[in-house]
Amino acid sequence: MVPSLIIALRETLEAAVIISVIIGYLNRTGQQKHKKTVVLSAVLAIIASIIGAFLFNTLAGGFEGRAEQIFEGITMIIGAILLTTMILWMMGHQNINQQLENNLAKEVVKKRELGLFFLVFVSVLREGIELVIFLGAASLVSKDNNLIGAILGIVLAIILGYVIFSGLMKANINKFFSITSILLILFAAGLIAHSIHEFEEAGIIPIVIEHVWDINPAMNINGSYPAWHENGWLGSILKGLFGYNGDPSLLELIGYFVYLIIITAIWKKVHPIK
Hints:
By secondary structure, the protein is an all-alpha fold. The protein has one domain. Helix content is 75%, strand content 0%. The chain is built from nine helices and no strands. The protein has helices at 2-28, 35-60, 65-92, 96-109, 113-141, 146-166, 173-201, 233-242, 250-270. The chain starts with a helix and ends with a helix.
């Protein structure tokens, strides 16, 4: 539930901030007449995202056996790539609000209603599609209360978005995104490792060493999993959030840490330690 909550909170809050910035700009510049276009565009983008979620779930449910393992592995890889590109983009665009307002100003000055519509539509739809893919990948890693976590994250993001728009909370949104970026980097590393596991099970990647270690506790007498087991209540949270694995293969372990080393090097390059 926790990984889905964080993902849904992050993506929905990004969309909420986008809408808040655009409406706030229109209010400040006396362009309230364009707000109907913004609302219509946002609603259509949300509907398109829901349709995308339905299609994704329909497609995911149509695979079995080896095909299912390959599909899950590919979905996790795509999720990790999109997460990484999103985080890297955020690193290079610290003042997102200013950039969005600059793009918005160009459309308003040129009085291009269609341009404003597509600016909002594409911005919100991008967050929606990313949310669908990220939650889909998270559900493949951990199947425990993902829907509840996603709903809670969306509700919290809507509340925070409204509070920020109302000016009741002077929050540092960039700092929030930086903190959640670190969590999402660890989540992406887990997706890389789990995708390797799926490809190993499908026979696409050879298993060099099946288990580098096995620290999963034995099952309880009643058939339940101990808390620290990767399928236990605590282990499943760590598994979904950080890619925890009680019995990783050698290639899973290598994939996890190679990803972290590469993304950390890029992070230090963009934000050098002073």
